[in-house]
Amino acid sequence: MSLHHRDTVVARPRSARHALGRSSRLAGLAAASLVLAACGGGGGGGGEEDPAAAEAFPEDDITFVVPFSAGGPTDTVTRLVAEPIAEELGGTVVVQNVEGAGGTIAAGEVAAANPDGYTVLMHHIGMSTAPSLYPDLPYAPLEDFEPLGLVTQVPMTIVARNDFEPQTMEELVEYVEQNAADITLANAGIGAASHLCGLLLQEALGVELTEVPYEGTGPALQDLVAGEVDLMCDQTTNTTGQIQGGQIKAYAVTTPERVETLPDLPTTEEAGLEELQVGVWHGFYVPTGTPEGIREKLSAAILASLEDENVVSQLGELGAAPFSQEEATPEAHRQLLEDQIELWQPIIEEAGVAAD
Amino acid sequence: MEILQNIGLGFETAFTPINLLFAFIGVALGTAVGVLPGIGPTATIALLLPITFGFDPVTSLIMLAGIYYGAQYGGSTTAILINLPGESSAAVTAIDGHQMARQGRAGPALATAALGSFFAGTVGTLALALFAVPISEAALLFGPAEYFSLVVLGLIASIALASGSVLKALAMIVLGLLLGTVGQDLVSGTPRFTFGLRELYGGLDFVSLAVGLFGVAEILRNLEGNITRSVAVQKVKNLWLTRADFRRIRGPVLRGTGLGTVLGVLPGAGHVLASFVSYSVEKRVSKNSHEFGKGAIEGVAAPESANNAAAQTQFVPLLTLGLPVSPIMALLLGAFIIQGIVPGPNVINEEPELVWGLIASMWIGNFFLVLLNLPLIGLWVKMLTIPYRFLFPAIIAFASIGTYSIGLNAYDIYAIAFFGVLGYVLIKLGNEPAPLLLGFVLGPLLEEYLRRSLIISDGDPSVFVTRPISAVLLLLAFGAFVLAVLPSIRRKRDVVFEEES
């Protein structure tokens, strides 16, 4: 059985994109592990407990599947932690980008992959919104995946064109309530973090603005800088440069704490909008049925990576921070996923956007 | 002179041995992936991005940028030799370039592409260095309404692309527009023409469309008769340009460079639009317009210059405003972020070495490219002497591997096969695939900008004529339309007169 699994992994050259971390034990170990795996063949199916397999894990490259393009924020976060995770596990981690359909193609593939711990999905907040956005989803986030742990949450900023009237968050709230019909709100496309944040903003203020969708953040920001649209809510990774450069103005950051790179920007809570809390949280998943021993090993490595100095400082430059050890556990991750699915479902339904 | 200081600083940075080496690696890789059908610069940069994590920021960006503009050089090679555009903007080059190759003039066609690219790349970089800030400010004057009108102008101008019947060209453009509607609707999220295929949610892929319509269809056509092959039916005459050739490409290269420099700044498909538009312009102004579609050297010089100039000025919004106008620029933005540099309007002041080093490296890179590509011409032309029974399976294999490697999905191979058959049917019906590709590229932009303009204006269509830039563009479009229709009206009148007399 396990030999079959290993063959499947080896026979997937598509995962051999780029190896990170230690590629320590080479051919010798690979041969040895094949023998080992062959011996363990009588041990039972992948879903069943096999202490020996968990003990020996990882015997092969582990693939981290990223559902978005290389160089994007999710990809950056994944590659940042992949190295310390590989080191912690004493193995090699391969990062693979499988793009398309708002990340649901990648998630669908991982859900159908062998639950042996060698195929791991990285996904962000989109994991919780996909069931509402794509009713024909080939997987169920809570049933088909085991959350391994959370990594980081990228804060979002509420920004506007420079000559937009309101100067502060308080003024913005008042202005939006009075002029809702005339205000345009840009986003980077259906299901994008900026779209979700925009929905929540409208919900929090109890208004309906004119939503202007774009294909990606770049063109949306360009029109905001040019003054074609009024408002937008997007990740710090996308907006910090323009805010610091004085091309757009920022009202608030949507996380409980201020961000280091924009110290003068108040939080939505400080500005009196407690309910407007949204961040792009990232976490790892394996398909349901992955042996517990292997999951524990992976989770422990993920938790350890969050304390890595380089990870902390690099995330800081992105305007984000790793989750604390208590917040990042698999249990906390499952809880957050459940809460978020519940939070977004009515909001997305009410907005009437769905891919079906 | 501050600008001279800046450029001096740039060369100081770019001329270190390590940066020279990586500029060379970048452009060489770019040439390679440009030549290989299917795999393009976007996939290559995405693949190599992680390797550059450990590099110095400027070294990393010099290499990644080199891959991008290097691919613009390489893309024309297979387009000319085997009618297979290796890169999206090379689709136009295939029209006349491949005809030249069939007439035994592959050498001059490749030389024209290389020299035109070199000139345009150098001038485009100069424009980037001198006018980056004003160019980016001008780009900000373009809102959705202006872009809509510009796309309308591009579409109408491109009717000139067809060498045959205007009606057939229109039919192809419309088919392209329709193919462009496949995928998830941007505003409502509703899937359109996806037939339950998740792979179609993101729309059809330009690369598999182009590889199928041009490359595979050409192979099918070559295999149908007892003609062993179409390419090099005539002896390869000479490898280099004649003096007459030089005179003929001078104007097209200059105009192509100008158009490319301006259009490159536009978001979306700036460099593809640039090559299509410059081809249409040449066809209209050239003394040899009857040769277009049958191997006019101008038809290679203009689009190749345009797409290379555009490739350089596409960096303007990224470097001056931190705004990526295309997926490639978004990847390079990712490279900045990974290096801990926050892209934005301050980058040019805070990281002058990085920005000017990158700009200077583009001159060096373009120089490497012409040095690399000119000697290769002889080799490429030799490739045409390989018996076709060996060549065509290799072409199909390379195209399939290249396309598969981007999305890692067997669906892309089926797409190539499907469009190959479609392309063959179109050829048999006497239709040309180039206007279809243009419709496919511009259709989604047309729709996107139209709907966005109307959303922002609250449904008021008068924005297109009350905004001055948009109004001028529409007026130009109308003029181009009249010019395109006029000859056929006159011809009809001539016919009428003949009958009367």
From TrEMBL, chain A:
Record flagged with keyword Ubl conjugation: no
Keyword set includes DNA-binding: no
InterPro entries: BUG, Bug_dom1
Superkingdom of origin: Bacteria
Xref: Pfam families: TctC
Keywords: Receptor
Family assignment from sequence similarity: Belongs to the UPF0065 (bug) family.
Protein name, UniProt field: Tripartite-type tricarboxylate transporter receptor subunit TctC
UniProtKB/TrEMBL annotation, chain B:
Transmembrane segments: 20-39, 46-69, 109-135, 147-180, 318-342, 354-374, 386-404, 410-427, 470-489
InterPro entries to which the protein is assigned, alphabetical: DUF112_TM (IPR002823)
Record-linked Pfam families: TctA
Residue intervals of the DUF112 domain: 20-438
Protein origin, superkingdom: Bacteria
Keyword set, alphabetical order: Membrane, Transmembrane, Transmembrane helix
PANTHER family: TRICARBOXYLIC TRANSPORT PROTEIN (PTHR35342:SF5)
Record protein name field: TctA family transporter
Organism lineage: Bacteria, Bacillati, Actinomycetota, Actinomycetes, Geodermatophilales
